[in-house]
Amino acid sequence: MLMQCLQNHGRYKLGQLIISYRTRHFSTGGYMKKNVKLLNQTNRHILQAIHLPKLPLIRYTGYRANASTQKVKVRRKDMIRLISLAKSEKLVLAAAIGCLIISSVITMSVPYALGKTLDIMFDKDDNQSMVKLKHFCAILCGVFVIGGLANFGRVYLFNSASLRIVRDLRLRLYRSMLNQESAWFDQKGSGELVSRLNTDAYSVGNSLSQNLSDGLRSICMVLAGTAMMIYTSPQLTLIGTCVVPCVGGIAVIYGRYVRTITRTLLDKFADIFKSAEERLSNVKAVKIFCKEDYETNNFKNLLSDAVKLGYKDAMARAMFFGLTGMSGNVIIISVLYYGGTLVVNDILSIGELTSFILYAGYSSISINGLSNFYTELNKGIGSAQRIWDILDRKYEIPLNFGIMPSEKPKGQVVFDNVKFCFPARPQNKVLDNFTLVLRPGETTALVGRSGSGKTTVATLLLRLYDPLNGRIALDDVDLRELSPIWLRSHIGAVNQEPVLFSGTIRDNILYGLNPNANFTESHFEEAVHKAHVDEFSSQLPDGLNTLVGQRGVLLSGGQKQRVAIARALIKNPTILILDEATSALDSVSEELVQNALDELAKGRTCLTIAHRLSTIRNANTIAVLDNGHVIEQGSYEQLIAQNVGTFKELVKKQAFLMNS
Ligand SMILES: Nc1ncnc2c1ncn2[C@@H]1O[C@H](COP(=O)(O)OP(=O)(O)OP(=O)(O)O)[C@@H](O)[C@H]1O
């Protein structure tokens, strides 16, 4: 068994050596980005060849890599970047540091004052000692009032600066998240993103405010304390400081460890919250399947994994504080013994020894504070790295790029030989050689079996994703050349599962207004009426001001769909996408809303996706989608008139199902 362990260890080291050689070899030639994929594959092959577990592989993320040669550079860069977040608050922080210096100096005058007082009290030859004592205490009172005010200023200024730093960071992060393309969100859970906005941003802010304040205060106190110790007795200082390098070394190793573990822990918690958020927001499904206990157990297992990681952190913490505490005790005993000898031999007064011991105590508490500062700073860097990952990410579909024509588009859309797979499932070809023309002012219906890619066509038209091959053009301009904001402002969409936000019915309808669009109450009322929202809102006590709840949970599916239709109407778009827009309505409401939608579609380019073929009878063109491309195309009558055909089959099947 032992031999096997040693052999495994040897093979592991060998693998690491080869990989470390390859890493250095590749990274020095400026090949980093180009060769990382190759390097990862090669690493995997080396490890497989010598039967080793997978090692963390090198991942190119702009400027950060796992290769050991890059580590130091990255840390310094991250540290500088973290501190540079405080730039916007430099004046406030300068004032806070001023207060901090004053309060630290005053705090550090206490041991000196105490020593002086003791020497005055014990000086039997001086008959003025009572007068001196009174003067001395009166001066001290004044000094301490200033110290208290400075302390107040320090804490208030640092904390208020931190609030603004965290606010700005959260804002940048939120904006950056919202600007990412849809594919990015497909692979991230909202719970994870919320955790970055909440916990990570807080941790970064804390390491720059309370922590920075305490750290700087500790630095001031260590410097002042050491200076006063040297002034009081250089020999005793020498004894007191001989353990400092040792404690410093432990602190550096510990800090690095904490940084790594913090990042791992935060990633772990992000996964946990992602899962919890998904369950909590779909709690009805959990209840219907009676999975309360099952989900609680899953959550417990995930939490236990995190706790196991936390134990490692707790162990490192305990070792660090145990070792530093022991070093402090060694200093105290040495100073007491040697200092006592100096007092007995009349080289030092009792007052001086007392001041010295107090200075040594303050300094060692401050050194402890410094190590805390270093730990928190490293935690902040761990959190900051997770934030940089998002802030540094290059958007695949940048919103501020592209042409913004001043005219409204005519609305001719051409899908030309489009090929597409979702980035999350690159092996699953959804569209292949997909060609379709949506004519201005006409309605084109897209039909096909479930999962054939109908909704995908709509998302490509909205440019939520870009095709892998081929071209989608609006009025003969490639969508990739147009500003996504301009494009989307001319498209209205009503989906199968309309998404509403917390707020009133009115707020949700007005959400459809384009930025800078003119709003008139009559326009709003027209949209409400045409979408038949007034039919149900008039029966609610607060009418259009009724709250819809989170994601619209307080409304029925059909009511939500009507609000979504009104939201699309108020946008007055050139292109309209109706993806099963009336699927949640009863047959009476469907007929009413369908009439409204037919009315709305007039004069616009309309792409209708429908399963119920009766709803697309009036479409100018019907395209049947199968295997990623259009297999049949024509008007309802033309497709029905064919002897055989997929559309005819579909109509027959639906008629049969309706009758049976
Ligand atoms: N975000 C995504 N990431 C990966 N695959 C996806 C994603 N969205 C959809 N798909 C897959 O793409 C394929 C086409 O989906 P799409 O929603 O376009 O079908 P559909 O024809 O609209 O289906 P339905 O009629 O049931 O609404 C399906 O196989 C689906 O599983």
Automatic annotation (TrEMBL):
Keywords: Acetylation, ATP-binding, Magnesium, Membrane, Metal-binding, Mitochondrion, Mitochondrion inner membrane, Nucleotide-binding, Transit peptide, Translocase, Transmembrane, Transmembrane helix, Transport. The chain crosses the membrane at residues 91-113, 133-157, 215-232, 238-258, 318-339. It is a multi-pass membrane protein. It catalyses: biliverdin IXalpha(in) + ATP + H2O = biliverdin IXalpha(out) + ADP + phosphate + H(+). GO terms for molecular function: ABC-type oligopeptide transporter activity; ATP binding; ATP hydrolysis activity; identical protein binding; metal ion binding. The keyword Ribonucleoprotein does not apply. Residues 94-379 form the ABC transmembrane type-1 domain. PROSITE patterns: ABC_TM1F, ABC_TRANSPORTER_1, ABC_TRANSPORTER_2. SUPFAM superfamilies: ABC transporter transmembrane region, P-loop containing nucleoside triphosphate hydrolases. One of its GO terms (cellular component) is mitochondrial inner membrane. Residues 413-652 form the ABC transporter domain. GO terms for biological process: oligopeptide export from mitochondrion. It is found in: Mitochondrion inner membrane. ATP-dependent transporter located in the mitochondrial inner membrane that catalyzes the export of biliverdin from the mitochondrial matrix, and plays a crucial role in hemoglobin synthesis and antioxidative stress. Participates in the early step of the heme biosynthetic process during insertion of iron into protoporphyrin IX (PPIX). Involved in the stabilization of the iron transporter mitoferrin-1/SLC25A37. In addition may be involved in mitochondrial unfolded protein response (UPRmt) signaling pathway, although ABCB10 probably does not participate in peptide export from mitochondria. Belongs to the ABC transporter superfamily. ABCB family. Mitochondrial peptide exporter (TC 3.A.1.212) subfamily. This is ATP-binding cassette sub-family B member 10, mitochondrial. The lineage of its organism: Eukaryota, Metazoa, Ecdysozoa, Arthropoda, Hexapoda.
